[in-house]
């Protein structure tokens, strides 16, 4: 196969093939798998391919993380991924489930809040930025999400929904320590963010959303309740002493 130098290896005669080391053999194998995958896989249509917010690539089927698309492509040709594909297909056939290729969740799970029009051509995932923040008074930890929708429809408004780990079927078994924030806006794919399973503070000023029609950006800010607030929520006389 091309792309791998067999000649100028230390310890071999010039012009000779030499003996490939273990690491070199693995590198050659990964490159051949990547080339094979490029001929058979369209990453834009791969329901298990996901680029996270730190730039790494994830396989939602095998729950693996890869530093580049070549590593992910080689992974898809490996035994683990192929075995999991067969198991998922057999399971879906047994249960008669219709999997939504947009969210990788059973069809209808998201509900009316994020309705998906099947006949609308998707244009990919929106660009996004996540900023960590902290309330200067209560010291609550928070996150600010900014999503860009340059090709969004004129009458479309981005919508969101929180989903528990037990509602989704992508990461199995469900991890109760996490929840998911889903954001949808046609004609873009629905995106999901994995968050800690902490209660969100819904008081005015702490949780808000805004859609700027001019810049076509959607903003969502949230703060998590402190441990004290979660522990004593609803208990008379034990409400948090700090309120804004």
Automatic annotation (TrEMBL):
Gene Ontology terms for molecular function: nucleic acid binding; zinc ion binding
Region (Disordered): 1-26
Domain Matrin-type: from-to ranges: 57-87
GO CC term (a single one): catalytic step 2 spliceosome
GO biological processes: spliceosomal complex assembly
Record flagged with keyword Transferase: no
Main location: nucleus
Keyword Coiled coil among UniProt keywords: no
Biased composition (Polar residues): 1-10
Annotated Pfam families: SF3A2, zf-met
Keywords: Metal-binding, mRNA processing, mRNA splicing, Nucleus, Spliceosome, Zinc, Zinc-finger
Location(s) in or outside the cell: Nucleus
Similarity comment: Belongs to the SF3A2 family.
Name by which UniProt lists this protein: Matrin-type domain-containing protein
Organism for this UniProt entry: Arthrobotrys oligospora (strain ATCC 24927 / CBS 115.81 / DSM 1491) (Nematode-trapping fungus)
